[in-house]
Amino acid sequence: VDVVSNIPSVTVDLDGNVSFRGNQNITVLVDGKPSILVGASNSDILNSIPASSIESIELVTNPSARYDPDGTSGILNIILKKRIDGSLNGSVSLNVGTRDKYNGSINLNYRTPYLNFFTSYDSRIARNENEGNSLRTNNINNSLSYLSTVNRGLFKLSSHNINLGVDYLYDDFNTFTIVYRYRNFGPNSN
After folding, report:
1. Dihedral of CA 91/55/175/46: which sign?
2. Rg of the chain over all Cα atoms, to the nearest angstrom
3. What is the spatial distance between Cα 147 and Cα 129, in angstroms, rounded to a whole number?
4. How many beta carbons lie within 10 A of that of residue 98, not counting itself?
């Protein structure tokens, strides 16, 4: 994120959201390919890459049809250093919100000359309380009846995501990737 914030015309806000000329709809590629963190935000992708493993960054301001540029303001292509021996990197994030909202994540990566092992885990737990009341009036054949109800509830939400994978770095232009993803998402209401 710190490296990207030094690129002219690119801004990074406090939450790590990247924008190009004021538009946040920017595509982030790693070595010319979509990131292996499918479904992750651009800030998560950038936070998972240590600055020491970046060789260069390319900013494509007018992407060709090859990149399906419809609606994007540009493409940020992060070129990683090749053939790094035995580098381990990772990140840990913990967040706490008001009214019982918690989430956290851990990302680890170990790279050898021809293999890149990666794993990530993230979890979100939230509890939301709700209250309500209603007054219903029924008029059937000029006979009035009333129903007054008071509702109190607790909604619990938890999600867990696990990614495990390995890249085989065949050469500087070809990479084979195997990824296992597990997701558990469940609401629970009382």
Report:
1. positive
2. 24
3. 23
4. 5
Question: Which residue has tokens 């597990």?
Answer: 182
Q: What backbone phi and psi angles, to 5 degrees, belong to 169? A: -90, 85
- Number of Cβ within a 10 Å radius of residue 50: 15
Q: 51: which 2 tokens? A: 């600055």
Contacts of 45 (CB under 8 A, 6+ apart): 28, 30, 35, 37
The CA distance from 116 to 114, in Å, is 7
**Residue 164 scores a pLDDT above 90:** yes
DSSP code for 42? H
CA dist 7 and 55 (Å) reads 14
Instruction: Tell me the per-residue pLDDT of 121-158, one tens digit each, with 9 for 90 and over.
Output: 989 888 888 889 999 999 988 889 999 999 888 888 88
List strand residue ranges (DSSP E) for the chain, in order.
Answer: 10-12, 18-20, 26-30, 33-34, 54-60, 74-80, 87-97, 101-111, 115-140, 143-169, 175-189
Distance (Å, rounded) from C-alpha 18 to C-alpha 26?
7
Nearest C-alpha neighbor of 18 from the set 49, 32, 125 = 49
**Cα–Cα distance, 148 to 28 (Å, whole number):** 54
Cα–Cα dist 126/122, whole Å: 14
